[in-house]
């Protein structure tokens, strides 16, 4: 319906969200086997207990009708022995109690099993995704990744909690009932079972239809989620461009779609229960009509047989209906697991070799040797770049937007590998070193600082988790963050929400300086890190910056050229190529691109 809504209201065309496509794949055994591997750690604990408990309660449910029909009705009742009848009653009660205990134990352990498997799977997926390379995240929205880690794994929950054991239980129950009925009275059994294929066919069709409706609900819900996510994240922009009405109109449309799809799905689902009851009723009618006929005319069929059948007929449709449901559940689980395994099979583009070298104590000597790099095949971001950054040197990267400055920083951090050539630190190719060790030696401060939910203290300590409170405070003092932190209501213990919205951009920047300083890296990258700090504060923190950079190889990316004039080397980039390099004076004398950039910034200032 959102499509018709857009057709009617062309101004809503801008709302486009990737659609989940309903998957109707055939059953995939290999995938199921792969999923079941997650049950293996519990194969000696929760799983056998749940199976034994299930077998006990199923056996009781199967035995009781036979005892009542064959013994109580056919043999004990005619004798009129009340004592014996009482003993049977007590015995049956004991059996039901046993079945109750069995069920309680089964439910408990099946839940333990299911929750543990889901926990393990989610843990595995999250730790895997966290280690994937930047390229993986370049191609996907955060929302779509979250949906897989949460929703897709949740949809496997039912399979692991009830599904597997129910499948076993229902299969045992159904096969046993069929055998018992055939043994007790083959004629009556066959008469009742005549309807099974028809019922099974209708039930499967009906279930398929119901499943599609619920898939539709999920698709609509995911669209509501995407719109909601975008609206909340972008609320300020929406308000500033007065787009609230359009947003609300679109939301109203998708909300209505969800409501309608939900209404259809519940209506269809509601048809299923009466269908099972109807199957039950047909079975009972056949039993009463044909059963009575047999009791009268066939000496082999007794009243006890009739009673046994009455019990079983009630228990007969239940597993059939559940097995149909189970099949649908398995198909849904298959489509969810397909999406989960797609992520799990994703290999990091940046791979660590088995014999990777540990980078403990580095000097910070960086070399680019004829480095070529592209994010996507048809666009080269860096062309044969060769450069050197000596230990302790401050190197500035300047150039127009998109010239490749951040790309150079990304390669030093080994977020990507060069397409050709090599990046070396202290003479070792980064493809040969351990990633953790490498990144512990490098701190990156970006313009858009990420603040995590937690206290200010914890946010700074992110740089070095084992730092003491005093060390955190010292780092904040050095970069000039202590003043504003002290002014906050709870000082260092002030809670900041995700993204640190209660702080100004400049304050967030100072926090990230403190975080970087605390990490005490040998290499530091400031990517537009001072862009959010006003000029006055920047002058004030020049000293702090100097202290932050002292003794480290520093790469500064800045559009504001005043920030970088003291750098040992300034590299000017254009379209992924080095145009010129040298210190400020050399480049000014050269009167090339850098000279032009400086002049244009001064002209801008003059115009003020
Ligand atoms: N993740 C990415 N996927 C595809 N292309 C990218 C990606 N990141 C950057 N690019 C492209 O690579 C080129 C270099 O980008 P880079 O971010 O290095 O530029 P920059 O000089 O840092 O620009 P700015 O000053 O705007 O930050 C640009 O053409 C950009 O469009």
From TrEMBL:
Domain ABC transporter: 366-600
GO molecular function terms noted in the UniProt entry: ABC-type oligopeptide transporter activity; ATP binding; ATP hydrolysis activity
InterPro entries with a match to the protein in the record: AAA+_ATPase, ABC1_TM_dom, ABC1_TM_sf, ABC_transporter-like_ATP-bd, ABC_transporter-like_CS, P-loop_NTPase, Type_1_exporter
PROSITE patterns (alphabetical): ABC_TM1F, ABC_TRANSPORTER_1, ABC_TRANSPORTER_2
Cellular compartments annotated: Cell membrane
Record's bilayer topology term: Multi-pass membrane protein
Gene Ontology terms: cellular component: plasma membrane
Chain segments annotated as transmembrane: 46-72, 84-105, 159-182, 188-204, 275-296, 302-320
The ABC transmembrane type-1 domain, residue ranges: 49-332
Keywords associated with the record: ATP-binding, Membrane, Nucleotide-binding, Transmembrane, Transmembrane helix, Transport
Main location: membrane
Record carries keyword Coiled coil: no
Protein's recorded name: ATP-binding cassette, subfamily B
């Amino acid at each position: 319906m959102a499509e018709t809504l857009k057709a009617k209201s062309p101004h809503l065309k801008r709302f486009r969200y990737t659609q989940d496509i309903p998957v109707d794949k055939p059953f995939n055994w290999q995938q199921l086997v792969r999923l079941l591997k997650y049950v293996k750690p519990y194969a000696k604990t929760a799983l056998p207990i749940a199976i034994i408990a299930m077998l006990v309660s199923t056996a009781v449910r199967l035995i009781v009708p036979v005892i009542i029909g064959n013994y109580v009705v056919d043999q004990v009742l005619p004798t009129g022995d009340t004592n014996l009848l009482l003993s049977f009653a007590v015995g049956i009660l004991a059996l039901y109690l046993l079945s109750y205990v069995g069920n309680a134990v089964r439910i408990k352990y099946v839940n333990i099993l299911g929750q543990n498997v889901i926990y393990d799977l989610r843990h595995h997926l999250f730790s895997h995704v966290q280690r994937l390379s930047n390229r993986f995240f370049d191609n996907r929205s955060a929302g779509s990744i979250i949906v897989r880690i949460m929703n897709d794994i949740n949809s496997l929950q039912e399979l692991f909690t009830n599904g597997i054991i129910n499948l076993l239980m229902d299969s045992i129950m159904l096969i046993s009932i069929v055998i018992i009925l055939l043994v007790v009275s083959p004629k009556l059994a066959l008469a009742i079972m005549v309807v099974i294929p028809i019922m099974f066919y209708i039930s499967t069709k009906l279930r398929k239809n119901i499943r599609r409706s619920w898939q539709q609900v999920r698709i609509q819900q995911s669209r509501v989620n995407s719109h909601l996510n975008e609206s909340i994240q972008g609320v300020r922009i929406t308000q500033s461009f007065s787009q609230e009405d359009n947003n609300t109109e679109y939301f109203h449309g998708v909300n209505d779609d969800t409501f309608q799809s939900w209404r259809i799905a519940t209506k269809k689902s509601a048809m299923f229960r009466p269908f099972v009851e109807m199957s039950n009723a047909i079975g009972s009618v056949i039993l009463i009509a044909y059963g009575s006929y047999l009791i009268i005319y066939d000496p082999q069929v007794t009243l006890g047989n009739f009673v046994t059948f009455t019990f079983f007929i009630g228990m007969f449709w239940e597993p059939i209906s559940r097995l149909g449901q189970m099949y649908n559940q398995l198909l849904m689980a298959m489509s969810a697991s397909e999406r989960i395994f797609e992520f799990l099979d994703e290999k990091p583009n940046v791979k660590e070799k088995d014999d990777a070298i540990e980078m403990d104590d580095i000097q910070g000597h960086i070399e680019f040797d004829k480095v070529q790099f592209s994010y996507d095949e048809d666009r080269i971001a860096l062309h044969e770049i060769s450069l050197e950054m000596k230990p302790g040197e401050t190197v500035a990267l300047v150039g127009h937007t998109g010239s490749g400055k951040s790309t150079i920083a990304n390669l030093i951090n080994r977020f990507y590998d060069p397409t050709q050539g090599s990046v070396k630190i202290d003479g070792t190719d980064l493809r040969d070193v351990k990633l953790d060790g490498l990144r512990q030696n490098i701190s990156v401060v970006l313009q858009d600082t990420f603040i995590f939910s937690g206290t200010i203290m914890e946010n700074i300590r992110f740089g070095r988790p084992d730092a003491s409170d005093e060390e955190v405070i010292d780092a904040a003092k050095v970069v000039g963050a202590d003043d504003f932190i002290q002014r906050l209501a709870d000082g260092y213990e002030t809670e900041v929400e995700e993204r640190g919205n209660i702080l100004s951009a400049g304050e967030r920047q100072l926090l990230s300086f403190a975080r970087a300083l605390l990490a005490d890296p040998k290499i530091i990258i400031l990517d537009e890190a001072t862009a959010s700090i006003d000029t006055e504060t920047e002058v004030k923190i020049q000293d702090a910056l100097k202290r932050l950079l002292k003794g480290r190889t520093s790469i500064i990316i800045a559009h504001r050229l005043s920030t970088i004039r003291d750098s040992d080397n300034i590299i000017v980039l254009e379209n992924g190529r080095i145009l010129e390099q040298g210190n400020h004076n050399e480049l000014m004398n050269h009167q090339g691109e850098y000279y032009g950039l400086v002049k244009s910034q001064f002209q801008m200032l003059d115009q003020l």
